Amino acid sequence: MKHGATIVYNRINNEPFVDGLAKQISHFVQAPTVVSGYLAFGSDASFKSHWDTRDVFAVQLMGKKHWVLYKPNFESPLYMQQSKDVDVPEPTIPDMEVVLEAGDVLYIPRGWWHNPVPMGCETFHLAIGTFAPTGYDYMQWLAKQTQNILPLRYNFSDWNSDKDNIIKACNELSTMMTDSVLYDKFMQEHMANYRSDSAFNMQLFGNANADANDIPDDALIVSNIVDGRTLEKGYVITNGLKININDDSQYLLKKIIQYEPISLCNLLQKTDKSMSNDIRSAIAKMAELDIIELVL
Q: How far apart are CA 222 and CA 213, in angstroms?
């Protein structure tokens, strides 16, 4: 490591502090996240200049790093379009240089070349990658729906014979691409693939005699919902489930998302006091369904 090596910890989870940071960023960008950690010391670069194929938030937790960034010369690369695999020249004139110290956060959009270098001290940062769905993801998903396009089920023979069927299939595919119902279904399935780690509150949910009144007033409430925009449509997607919610639950979740992390006591103060028992029961039910996390 003295000669520039870096220890990389990929896909960090079940680490409460890291999970909390990832969840905050996930809620901010309304997209799933994956976290990696990078430990190094010395003053030599571990990686050559490169781009990432997802937007990244670099969170410096220890020491310092010098970051050099260059504008993209290959726009919006996908996961199979790594900088080492695409035939474009590496930029030589920086567009931004910054030193990150403990507590600093740097946002790096996908496609931006960058090269972080330690500064002669022990240094550790998290790279929180965000995975918003792309048009390419949508097309891959739509391809699985095209078995209902009849012209695509015909055998091919030659261009002159097949051209009209291909044109018909293109028209039908175009109609599917611009169908808002299919788009919403794709977004739901994409978000359903995301899992958010939650504390396992055995004292509450493993106790047959426990009820909503056993939730401590100082318990912190955090949403497990990645995309809060679905609230207006009367449902949420969390940890693989689509759950329909009523108007009261919508109101409560909006309050939680607005102020999270928020203690149960503070949440009760911001809502109708005559509804305290109902709110406690709703919180317990939402925690049971993993819509929210209770940090005790």
A: 19
Contacts of 136 (CB under 8 A, 6+ apart): 78
**DSSP-assigned states of every residue in 201-214:** -HHHHT-TT--GGG
| Per-residue tokens: 212 | 């909503």
- Can you tell me which residue has the tokens 């507590």? 103
Q: Pull the structure tokens for residue 58.
A: 């670099």
Contact 82, 109 (CB under 8 A): no
Nearest to 78 by CA among 51, 49, 105: 51
Whole-model pTM: value is: 0.86
C-alpha 172/C-alpha 181 separation (Å) is 15
Taking CA atoms, 211 is separated from 164, 214, 268, 282, 291, in Å, by 65, 6, 17, 11, 18
Which residues are CB-contacts of 59 (< 8 A; sequence separation ≥ 6)?
A: 21, 104, 105, 125, 126, 127, 128
Beta-bridged to residue 97, according to DSSP, are: 68
Give the three-state DSSP class for 59.
strand
Of 39, 111, 102, which is closest to residue 79 (Cα–Cα)? 111
Q: Are 100 and 60 in contact (CB under 8 A)?
A: yes
Mean pLDDT by 10 residues, the chain (296 residues): 79 88 92 94 81 97 96 96 95 95 97 93 95 96 94 96 96 96 93 80 80 91 89 89 91 92 93 88 91 90
Where are the extended beta strands (E) located within 152-288? 220-223, 235-238, 241-244, 262-263
Q: What are the start-end ranges of the H helices in 84-179?
A: 135-143, 159-177
